[in-house]
Amino acid sequence: MIKAGIIGGSGYTGGELIRILLNHPQTEIDFVFSTTRAGKSISSAHQDLLGQTDLKFSGEINPNVDVVFLCLGHGNSTSFLNENQFSASTKIIDLSNDFRLQADANFNGQRFIYGLPELNKSAIKAANAIANPGCFATAIQLALLPLSKAGLLNNEVHINAVTGSTGAGVGLSATSHFSWRNNNVSWYKPFTHQHLGEIGESLSSFGNAVGKLFFMPNRGNFTRGILATAYTKYEGTLEKAKALYQDFYKDAVFTHLSDEELHLKQVVNTNQCHIHLHKHEDLLLVTSAIDNLLKGASGQAVQNMNLMFGFPETEGLLLKAGVF
Ligand SMILES: NC(=O)c1ccc[n+]([C@@H]2O[C@H](COP(=O)([O-])OP(=O)(O)OC[C@H]3O[C@@H](n4cnc5c(N)ncnc54)[C@H](OP(=O)(O)O)[C@@H]3O)[C@@H](O)[C@H]2O)c1
Do you know which Pfam families this protein is assigned to (predicted)? Predict the structure, then answer.
């Protein structure tokens, strides 16, 4: 058994990590640090965990855990690590965007490896620190990586994606207020979303030219999940595109190509990414679907932990979708 610590335990991704790790056969939660709930039971924040654990939130860290997950808002991971020392052997998995870009990846003598297993599996296995990808970034990269590797992404790419309200974290804001969000839909940050940086770096990592990305993020009136569509010019056949994706994801345990059109609930509550391809005239339309809190955050973080510690990649992550 390895010992894990979680920082930011009362938030959404922190809660998802607690749920996953309580059922992970090779991990014991050593502490769940909280700035606001120290001494209170875990179920005071995550009521569904009533009876599942006697753990309480802690106001202190144990610097000697085997792995620590940072579930903090952007910028707070950097300050937390500056203020709190972990042992040299503690592996760090950060869920914020503090260390995702190559320019930010070196910190306090550590190199953070970008934690997308479908792209970086061997580097993740050898890593001591992981920058876990963003949720939109995961859905969009998994939709486009096979095309960029094949050198087929050199034209403009138009991307549209819709996310649930948990993507914005547990704090209440005007656009996550029930009265605003319910029965509503809107776009935000058109063409400028902060995940474009990490998406661009991964797509360019094969050395092939990548066309300009036009990304429209949308807020949906549901709680979990991301459905993304991307289309670009593509001259080949649909069968050739499918073969490309099948080959790229042949070793992927959670990313699968579907012949059927996708809907969001087929992946919600799972660590899966499902992808569908459609050809229209000279365009290829790629659709991808993930759960933003699992494959888009805490599930992928545990997938990375499994790889770093040599556990089976799917350990603790064989979850059931709530389709109906
Ligand atoms: N939500 C998603 O779908 C998603 C997906 C991918 C990546 N992410 C990223 O993952 C990170 C966490 O997201 P989240 O949705 O879990 O956020 P969240 O629900 O807002 O939770 C963050 C938690 O961090 C703690 N915290 C706040 N300020 C802090 C500080 N200055 N120092 C230490 N702890 C502090 C708070 O917990 P306590 O009160 O218990 O201390 C807070 O509940 C973010 O960087 C986010 O962008 C989120």
Answer: Semialdhyde_dh, Semialdhyde_dhC_1
